[in-house]
Amino acid sequence: MASDSSAIKTYKGSCHCGKFAYEFKHTSLEAHEFRATICNCSICSKKGNVYSVLMDPSEITWKSGDLASLTEYTFNSKTCHHYFCPVDGCAIGVLMDENNPFVKNKITLNLNCVEGVDTEKLNKKIFDGKSH
Q: Could you tell me which residue ranges the CENP-V/GFA domain spans (predicted)?
């Protein structure tokens, strides 16, 4: 029997030390239709992040810590706010603010921090952040 790829699943993620843990709901990340995003900008390519779909920050339920307590890093246009754990350095996600020319007030999570997701096996698309 084939699994229903449209079924909503709850995913759990965290940084390495566990200070920041969260949950979010999404259709199956393993479904053939889902394509994770690889950004080729200077920081994402150095870190090797693999990103989820864009979502409202309110769609993330923080189990420990919160977005405001993560360390924030911006560069260039300063419209993409990269968040990482101040203890272990794990990249949690990127928030595009209201001044971002492509998408406003959305966050994307680094799927390398999500339990049970093998990012090597995911279908992927490239976002050309290097040119923006």
A: 11-128
